C-alpha cells in the first residue's frame, strides 16, 4: 500500500500531444533535444522513434565519440541526420508521409514527443467563368452590368481552405482535412470587375489568383448614388414648382370668383 501511494505521488501523465511543429514539403525540420530542458551533461543515451515503429536511431554518448546506429529507416532513405554533439534529429527533404508523432527517449527520463506536420506545397487556384451566364444587360447608365457564375478550383490538395474575396472582404470559404482531393467553390456575382480573388491557404502558406478582367464593366455604387441622387433632386424640384404654380393659380382664381359674385 505504501508503494502504491509513493507511485501516485510521483507519477505524472505523459504528454503525448508533444511539441507541435509545421514544415513545408521539401524543407528540413530539426527536432532539438534541448526542448526537454534536460542538461546536456546528463544525457548518456538517446533513442528516436517514429509512431508505433521500432527505434529509428540509437545514440550512445561515449567519452571519445558518440556511437550512432540507424534502424528501420527505409521510409526516410538517407534523409535523417543526427547532431553528434546534441543528439538532435534533422529530417531533410521532408515529405507529407513524414507527418506524425516522433518520440525522444532517454534513460531515467520520461519520453518527450514532437508532433510534426508536413504540408504539401500549394497549387495556384484556377478561376473559370461560365460565359453563357455572363451576358450584359442594358441599364440607364452608360456602363453595363454583367451577371456571372465564377468557379475557383484546385486539385490534389489536403488540409486547406479555399476562399473568395472581394478586395479584403471575405465572401465565402470551404475547408477540408482530407488528402489529395479536388475542391471547387462557386460564386455568383452581378458586377464583373477585377476586385475579386480566390485564395488557397493552409496554416503556413497561401496562393492567390485574381480575377483577370481586361475591361471591367461595372459602375460603382458611389456613381449610382450620385447619379440617382441628382436626378431625384431635379425631379422633386420640378414637381414642387408645378404644384406651387398650380396652388397659386387656384387661390387667385378663387379670389377673383368671389369678387365677381359680390
Description:
This protein is of the alpha+beta class and 262 residues long. It folds into 2 domains: 14-119, Immunoglobulins (Immunoglobulin-like); 126-210, Immunoglobulin-like, CATH 2.60.40. Helix content is 19%, strand content 41%. Strand 3 and strand 4 (55-60) form a beta hairpin.
Q: What percent of the residues sit in helical stretches (DSSP H or I)?
A: 10-25%
Gross morphology is rod-shaped
Largest sheet: 6 strands, mixed
CATH superfamily of the largest domain: Immunoglobulins
CATH class of the largest domain: Mainly Beta
How many beta-strand elements?
A: 16
CATH topology of the largest domain: Immunoglobulin-like
What count of domains describes the coordinates? Answer: 2
| Portion in strands | 35-45%
**Secondary structure category:** alpha+beta
Keywords: Membrane, Signal, Transmembrane, Transmembrane helix
Signal peptide: 1-16
Protein name: SLAM family member 9-like
Domain Ig-like: 125-214
Secondary-structure topology with pairs:
Layout: H1 2-10, E1 19-24, E2 29-31, E3 45-50, E4 55-60, E5 67-70, E6 80-82, E7 89-91, E8 100-106, E9 112-119, E10 126-137, E11 145-157, E12 160-166, E13 169-176, E14 181-189, E15 196-202, E16 205-210, H2 221-261
Parallel strand pairs: 1-9
Antiparallel strand pairs: 2-7, 3-4, 3-8, 4-5, 6-7, 8-9, 10-11, 11-14, 12-13, 12-15, 15-16
Question: Nutshell version of this structure?
Answer:
The protein is rod-shaped and about 135 Å long.
Feature tags:
about 260 residues, alpha+beta, Immunoglobulin-like, 2 domains, 6-stranded mixed sheet, 4-stranded antiparallel sheet, about 20% helix, rod-shaped, disordered N terminus
